[in-house]
């Protein structure tokens, strides 16, 4: 076999575990939920009664009774728009710091990654219910008042909510830090040595070398952060789905899935424009 065939074979073997698991455990529930989004389900003593409703569930959620989207989901989406860049930028800066050589570097790497292991959704929810993770100086200096004075009401509330749980938000940066750290180590030190010989400052090497080389890892972390945040414990849709009729809940879940795809599509579009070479270069 040629080298190309061998690479394809090994790639297929590595991904086969996920494909088999998806087909066995996830494919049917996903397809059935899409089917049920067009039906009304009633649980009777004799069994399940399924009645075709067409697009009525989607019309109800989008137009007739849109409180699930416009009063609950949209404020959370505004929070996500704030949290995504905060998490990615924080993870990038911490990864660059942890890549430096200093005493106790391994211990600090473990500390930043430990929340990924211990903070499951239920633990995070319990912390938030107890008021943990808040930054004390926000109340001490009445930061909420200044935010409400500067920003409009639709954006002031999400910003205050993000600031109120800022520590918990940063706890969700462990995987991103690990990815950025691995990406930073793919950049050869000889490039930085050549830049220093040419007289480049650390600030210039960050903007001209580190940041462009880390663009693929920024894209990866943006995708991971979007998916991770849309399963955040404070997500109103996840809480609401468990309280609704199965047909309505399925329709709401598929609308929510479409919104996630829109977010990911915007990210892919932005990075495709950034990574596209200029005309002069071509």
UniProtKB/TrEMBL annotation:
Pfam families: BPD_transp_1. Residues 73-272 form the ABC transmembrane type-1 domain. Keywords: Cell membrane, Membrane, Transmembrane, Transmembrane helix, Transport. It is a multi-pass membrane protein. The keyword Transport applies. InterPro entries: MetI-like, MetI-like_sf, UgpAE/MalFG_permease. SUPFAM superfamilies: MetI-like (SSF161098). The chain crosses the membrane at residues 12-35, 80-99, 106-124, 155-181, 217-239, 251-272. Signal peptide: none annotated. Belongs to the binding-protein-dependent transport system permease family. This is Carbohydrate ABC transporter permease. It comes from Marinicrinis lubricantis.
